[in-house]
Amino acid sequence: MKKLSSGQIRQMYLDFFKSKGHDIEPSASLVPVDDPSLLWINSGVATMKKYFEGRVVPKNPRLTSSQKSIRTNDIENVGKTARHQTLFEMLGNFSVGDYFKKEAIPWAWEFLTSPDWMAFDPEKLYITVYPDDKLAKELWLKTGVQADHIYEDDDNFWDIGEGPSGPDSEIFYDRGQAMNNVPEDDPENYPGGENERYLEVWNIVFSEFNHKPDGTYEPLPHQNIDTGMGLERLVSVVQGAKTNFETDLFLPIIKKTEAFSAGKKYNANAQDDVSFKVIADHARAVTFAIGDGALPSNEGRGYVIRRLIRRAIVHGKKLGINEAFLYKLVPVVGEIMQSYYPEVLEQKDYIANIIKSEEDRFNNTLNDGLKLLDKTIAAAKQTPDKTIAGAQAFKLFDTYGFPFELTKEQATDAGLTVDEAGFNAEMQAQKDRARAARNQDNGMGVQSGLLLDVKDPSTFTGWDHLNSDDAELEVLVQDQSLVAAVQTGTAQLIFSETPFYAEMGGQVGDHGVILDANGTKVADVTDVQHAPNGQNLHTVTVLAPLSKGSHYQLQVDPTFRRLVSQNHTATHLLDQALRDVLGEHVRQAGSLVEPDYLRFDFTHAGQTSPDELKQIERIVNEKIWAALPISWVVTDIESAKKMGAIAIFTEKYGDEVRVVSIGDYSREFDGGTHANNTAELGLFKITSETGTGAGVRRIEAVTAKAAFDFLGQREAWLQDTADLLKEPQIKAVPHKVEQLQAQLKAANREIESLQAKAAQAQAGDVFKQVQTIGATTLVAAEVNVADMNQLRQMADDWKQKSASDVLVLGTEVKGKANLIVAVSPAGVKRGLKAGDLIKAIAPKVGGGGGGRPDMAQAGGKNPAGIQDALKAAADFLAQA
């Protein structure tokens, strides 16, 4: 076996499959794109779903990748086991309807055992196969695997519900009995059993069936290969590590954490080791997640980041680290991963700032949590069973980030137990709520073969022309069937050539018409999408019969195209202006380009301020007024990068890319249509800025005539306001409004003064109406005042005059009842409480209330009950 670094192993894997004709797919963002079923990219195949589902046919059916992934279903186990990680890399090779078992099996063996590659000892490798998969077993034997190194296992069938499924074959590495955790004669001591000796390193899925909704299986139109090999596991084997954490992927992070701790060392204490591992794992996960645009929050993937950061901080406390430290590990993570993920170091300052802000915020929360834990322990000591309730333990976990184990440990030290069943019930209830709120369609869609085999070429001519005079109709689809002709209704069409742009990268597809050879309109084009093999698929409303093989004239609506193109150019200007004003951390998180407006989503922590929006808007308009020329060129990716072109993380790029340049201001990878000069946009106006989720902001804007109309509407509203104010000049409206506001404030003050005087006069009469109930004097009356504030003022006047032992006042304000109760100091000493009295009488007005012993108030929906409430007050005192 060769001694290799993690970077060398990753590259060797990719190089091997490149030598087998595979294209290397770059590692996609952890934040899924156009896949609401996933919170995170959680495997290599997750980025290949569109290919396996048949929605898109890849340029090359052979693909390979090292895909960063996050899984969070068992965060609690991270640090306690040898191989649990939240962030991991999955090495994979994929065949989309190309090669199958007879290639995949010998290639896997070659990569692992050949001296040219990993050079594993074949005697240390074991294989498991599905019992009914006789061909796989035969191929492994033919490849050179000994018969006693092949095990049949009923679990070797990959199936996640509806969609592609099939038998799989796993490869295990024998680390020797010295690494085992079960006796040699234990029934689990075999490849595939529950033991530490035989380590699974690779799973090859032979995807050949569709799992149908009714539970039955049918052959796929095309057989596929989907493999997965955890990089961390493979590195642990190559580097002879007991766990994944003793490899070059984690040890530098652990060593740095040692330097922050209070003299703690890794491998010196089992409990400390758990904390070191948790911190190393979570530092990697949050660094990559934030680098890919996710931000801490209280929901979704933002909540996952927040939970990971808080869990790491708690474990830092256990190592004696009492200040922010996690952010200091970001550069360490970046240096480890630099060979394949240079963007981490490029963004290290931004990522570190986000983490430090979260650490600082949580350290205050953590101190509150520690205080609550102390109170919880003290309270539990007073209970008969000396137990901390599960709900309390869950509150410490969910609100303050305390792992259950930490609460349990503290409880044990105090001679207490924790209701673990109650805690688990609370945890399950939370998971059930999350599951109910989440789209559960996280499987792969059932593959459709309808257009997979449609490979007739279709040329897009729409860069330079909006018309095609002689386009042959090659494919017709209606009611999910390929047909030779259509008479009416809705259909999808593919032509030999087309000027119609197909929706991509947020730009909507063109609209327009189809004419026959005589110039008669036969269909309206309402949408254009890409077929699986890349052809432009036109959705049309059929107005006259259409037939395969006939020739037609295609005409794009020129106004629709022009407006969409102008708005697309505006998104590029906006993208760069956002970076200029907010910082280089800004990333596009989605866009929509319509003819009448544009929408642009971007990553940014916090709301964009009004001043920042004005600055962004000004920059875009200055570029429009500068009449910058717009040009584009098709080139290879490396040349495009050297040109300084910005790649949008949501897109996948082929060998050749189109680069759109707007003067020297903006240069981006882009496949859409644009104006020829920024001056065509005329004007740019932001209409709204909102948040759409954790760390994602959305700007909507308009250009050209839509911007003119937007401003015109506001001018009309301003003119209407001027007319109402009888102000001939619009520019004087703000000053006029200020004058009116000042007059209104003065008038309100005068009204309040008059109301106060009226209330005082009313109070003078009311306070004379004293009732004597036993040993208690009572003033109870319904009064006419403006609001609760004046009721409180009357109560203050009553207190100064010592008019009685108890005061009860009621008033109706805007159809609702308000009550106030006051008790004199002498009354309070005798045991009378305003809060008790208000609770007794508030139901009479259909409400409730409370307060202090000397003052309480209530509100209700039934002002007709005020007199009943006053009577109830007298009855209450009579029984007191």
Automatic annotation (TrEMBL):
EC number: 6.1.1.7
GO biological process per UniProt: alanyl-tRNA aminoacylation
Record's GO cellular component terms: cytosol
SMART domains xrefs: tRNA_SAD
Pfam family, one: DHHA1
Keyword Electron transport appears in the UniProt entry: no
SUPFAM superfamilies, per the entry: Class II aaRS and biotin synthetases, Putative anticodon-binding domain of alanyl-tRNA synthetase (AlaRS), ThrRS/AlaRS common domain, Translation proteins
Keywords per UniProt: Aminoacyl-tRNA synthetase, ATP-binding, Coiled coil, Cytoplasm, Ligase, Metal-binding, Nucleotide-binding, Protein biosynthesis, RNA-binding, tRNA-binding, Zinc
Residue ranges constituting the Alanyl-transfer RNA synthetases family profile domain according to the UniProt record: 4-713
Catalytic activity annotation: tRNA(Ala) + L-alanine + ATP = L-alanyl-tRNA(Ala) + AMP + diphosphate
UniProt cross-references to InterPro entries, sorted A to Z: aa-tRNA-synth_II/BPL/LPL (IPR045864), Ala-tRNA-lgiase_IIc (IPR002318), Ala-tRNA-ligase_IIc_anticod-bd (IPR018162), Ala-tRNA-synth_IIc_core (IPR018165), Ala-tRNA-synth_IIc_N (IPR018164), Ala-tRNA_ligase (IPR050058), Ala_tRNA_ligase_euk/bac (IPR023033), DHHA1_dom (IPR003156)
Broad EC category: ligase
GO MF, one annotated term: aminoacyl-tRNA deacylase activity
Coiled-coil regions, chain positions: 730-764
Necessary cofactors: Zn(2+)
Entry comment, domain topic: Consists of three domains; the N-terminal catalytic domain, the editing domain and the C-terminal C-Ala domain. The editing domain removes incorrectly charged amino acids, while the C-Ala domain, along with tRNA(Ala), serves as a bridge to cooperatively bring together the editing and aminoacylation centers thus stimulating deacylation of misacylated tRNAs.
Family classification: Belongs to the class-II aminoacyl-tRNA synthetase family.
Primary role: Catalyzes the attachment of alanine to tRNA(Ala) in a two-step reaction: alanine is first activated by ATP to form Ala-AMP and then transferred to the acceptor end of tRNA(Ala). Also edits incorrectly charged Ser-tRNA(Ala) and Gly-tRNA(Ala) via its editing domain.
Protein name: Alanine--tRNA ligase
Originating species: Loigolactobacillus bifermentans DSM 20003
Phylogenetic lineage: Bacteria, Bacillati, Bacillota, Bacilli, Lactobacillales
